[in-house]
Amino acid sequence: MREGTFILVLCLVAWFGFDLLQGQRDTARSERDAALFEVNGLRDAARISGEMLADRDAIDLQRTLELNHERAENDALRLDVAAGRKRLSVKASCSAAVPASAGAGGVADAATAELAADARPDYFTLVDQLALSKQMILGLQDHALRVCPRQSQPTLNP
């Protein structure tokens, strides 16, 4: 009988030990699965962040190149105007000429109206600022269309 009781106690201890180990195994599996899910989520987030940064850098490069091109054209025009190769014409209209019989002195028709020399630097500054503003707006629009929608996309993990 002692041997039977000993075997029964031994079997109960082994069963409780096995049950304890099985519970620990299940806990470890669930923790592993949770960690794998988190790793996949972080990996996807890192991938998406990298793609968004690449898109942002591509937009910045494109808009910077376009801005530099527009500024170079403006600088070339500035040099041509300063050298006298080109003129900055002003779109203007003059009132009807006064007939000579009225006795008033008139000004003879001259060449096309031109921007005054002291206003030229302001013109070129405005053209530069306009080009900068245009590229900033286009860059923000590109960012809003290409990068921002990706920020709100949920990541799907299998």
Mean pLDDT figure: 85
Give the distance, in angstroms, between the N- and C-terminal Cα atoms. Answer: 57 Å
- State the helix count: 3
How many E strands? 0
Structural class: mainly alpha
Unreliable parts: none
Multimeric status of the protein: single chain
Shape: rod-shaped
The largest sheet, given as strand count, sense and whether it forms a barrel, is: none
Approximate helicity band: over 70%
Order of H and E elements: HHH
Beta content comes to: under 5%
The value of Rg in angstroms is: 40 Å
Can you describe this structure?
With 158 residues, the protein is mainly α. The chain has a domain at 52-92 and 112-150. It has helices at residues 2-83, 120-146, 148-151. The longest helix is centred in the first third of the chain and has 82 residues, at 2-83. The two termini are 57 Å apart. The model has no long low-confidence stretch (mean pLDDT 85).
Topology readout:
Layout: H1 2-83, H2 120-146, H3 148-151
Helix pairs in contact: 1-2
Give a concise summary.
The protein is an all-alpha fold. Helices cover 72% and strands 0% of the residues. α1 runs antiparallel to α2.
